[in-house]
Amino acid sequence: MHDLKFIRDDPTAFDAGLKRRGLPPLAASILAVDQERRRLQQALEEMQARRNSLSKDIGRLKAKGDEAAAASAVAEVARIKETMPAAEEAERRKGGEIDALLATIPNLPAPDVPDGADETANRELRRHGETPRLNKPLQHFELGEALGLMDFTMAAKLSGARFVVLKGALARLERALAAFMLDLHVGQFGYTEVAPPFLVRDQILYGTGQLPKFAEDLFRVSGDYWLIPTAEVPLTNMAADSILEAAALPQRLTAYTPCFRSEAGAAGKDTRGMIRQHQFSKVELVSIARPEQSEAEHERMTECAETVLKRLGLPFRTIVLCTGDMGFAARKTYDIEVWLPGQNRYREISSCSNCGEFQARRMKARFREAGAKGTRFVHTLNGSGLAVGRTLIAILENYQQPGGSIALPEVLHPYMGGLAAIEMP
Fold this sequence. Notes:
Layout: H1 4-9, H2 11-20, H3 27-64, H4 67-103, E1 123-128, H5 140-147, E2 150-151, H6 152-159, E3 165-166, H7 168-187, E4 192-193, E5 199-201, H8 202-208, E6 225-227, H9 232-237, E7 242-245, E8 251-260, E9 279-289, H10 294-312, E10 316-320, E11 332-340, E12 345-354, H11 358-363, E13 365-368, E14 376-377, E15 379-387, H12 388-398, E16 406-407, E17 421-422
Parallel strand pairs: 4-8, 7-13
Antiparallel strand pairs: 1-10, 2-3, 5-6, 8-9, 9-15, 10-11, 11-12, 12-15, 13-14, 16-17
Helix pairs in contact: 3-4, 5-12, 7-12
């Protein structure tokens, strides 16, 4: 959510930020509605002041014996009381119009975010690791099916397209990866592990920016419950409607959850395999920080996610997204892309975003400095640490052996009961 005062004070800067996002100027239309609402608010205040003044006069006029003037004041108070509900409703409608406008406008990009219309303008920052030299590498689904441990036919029978059934060592590998990631983030990086609900209400998705604009990307169940598209949603909203103490910030939270996405805009994309599914698992990282901390926290979070790939021995690159490729709530985003030999390309495995105060305004998440009377909005950050299914894919493709077996990174051996490789049957 945007600060209406900022739009009033500097509409040119607001429109300039939208232009960088590829959007038309909107400040004038927002301010026109805002001006009408303020006019209605002023009219209401004048009516209330007049009613209060008349109410005081009635007793005084009666005490003086001026019954005619008192009766006239009583009649005017009655007329004001009759008029006020309609005026209050008009003011509420205008307020609702402003909220509806602001709710669908994305966050403004940070000054150092590169401009661009799409992913072709993203800028690579660094690479890590050597890409393996493999003779005719197979894709993950070819490897998984050959092992007899990845079953898309059974998944389609159970649930339809964009699902998978993992069995045996691959099912254990998914669990092992999640445990390894959580142990690293909690034990080394100081995150607090959380086991959140997988169903949330409308207001919670509004708080992080998925609603109202992206409802088609979500799965709705009965009532006002929705399946979470990422643990970012419940973790970030743990700060909603709260005033936190500055000394307690930053708060760092992590969770391993399933994620559910309708992939409404993904027709024809990644139809084979596990890259883009309706249900997948992810270890999420969330930080709630003071504004002065958020840039450093963003760099730290990205490094935490990169460390997972380094420990697993997977080659990757880190890029900063341009203005046209960032998510709705993001102010600045780093994507980490892992190398997939079967596709001969890098693919996203983590997206780490600094949302500034954008989500905090929607959630009413604030903090207070020690001894201060006023409050300020927190900054929220989120990132994948990592997408577990895509990490499994990367291990299959990067660690594939000539005979079709899969070597396992050494750090995973204890999590796999000492298993060093997944062998062909």
